[in-house]
Amino acid sequence: MKKHILGAYRILNGIYADGTYSNMAVHSADISDMSVRLVYGTLENDVRAEYIMSELADKKPQKAVAILLKIGIYALENLTDVPKFAIVSECVESAKAIGKGGAGGFINAVLKKVANGDYKLPNENDKNYLSVKFSKPEWFVKKLVAEYGRETAISIISAKSQHLQHIRINARKTDLNSVKDRLYRAKVKYEKSEVGGLTVKFHPEIKKLFDCGEITFQSPSSMLAVQSLAPADGSAILDICSAPGGKAVYMSELCQSGNVVAGELYPHRIELIKKYAKRMGSPNVTPVQADASALKEDWIGKFDFVLVDAPCSCFGTFLKHPDVFLSRGEDEILSLQATQKRILKNAAQYLAEGGTLVYSTCTLFNEENGEVVKSLLDCGGFKLEHIAAFDKISEGKYSENDGSVQLLPHGEYDGFYIARIRKV
After folding, report:
1. Stretch 315-322: mean pLDDT
2. Topology (CATH) of 220-423
């Protein structure tokens, strides 16, 4: 157990101390499946663990000690196949291994209380009950309840990630049946998704397919943004906030005789798009350095289709990225809105007459979604248009959409807002 705890600690220390993204840290490390489980479980349990530590410790522990305590708390509450005494003991031994042996007694005392259940959690009448029960920030829960109602808010915060990967097949290099056959021969289990990809558990065969560009990792929600735009082949297409380039590359595959201009502000992010397009064999993606929030006059009226996957707070991705709450708070939501409005207003001017635009975010709140779209519609000359891509999603749940859909996080779906807008 000690090696699993230490493997998880190394990853979590980078996340808590240095702000490393959880998915990047896990995928770049050679650690056990148990360590991966401890990493994601600890992050998902962060709010609850903080509450329990505050109940059992007189003062806030040092960061390294706090990380080990959080791992131990998660393990004690969730690993039913490991003896509790072993979890406590191995957390103490892990403290010695990282040079924190002096805190061994403290870690032992706190975790023994957790193992024995010597702590109280909020009751249903306490204002922080839902926050601690489902381990989400109190402001987040409160805001969800205000926007969606208590029942839907609980369904959102209680959703569990399957911790699977969603892959999209590169039509330029292979097809779905060929990929399925390779996975079958490698004994990799998979399920077909509603959007045409596959959900899988990471495996060396997946990495081989990725490295040669036959597949890529792309969430169903991200794919739906492109499918909602439904660009016609041979068209002029703009992806205005493109990096790392997944949506631009997908559009380039759907429209192989069209040209996809992939706009991005920073040079290092332009390089990400180039690398992505090269791996996938996408010659009709043209990366261009451009500030989406500043009007580019030579683009006005030049594009048939424009995708605005706007910079956002990303709170809809918490199932796959539970560390989002460590780096972002409620103030992020309103601070982004003004930028989102500028970007959308500029993007709308790049449309040719009769052109189509999709505005999308991976977040849940109206300030970044409906309010931003309304700011454009109120100017006149644009209207929402039914999104046919959703007609067969979730057993037709969204088939009567008015041109905008708010996906809630569940399974392999991120929380995603998508609006399809026509220039009239």
Report:
1. 93
2. Rossmann fold (3.40.50)
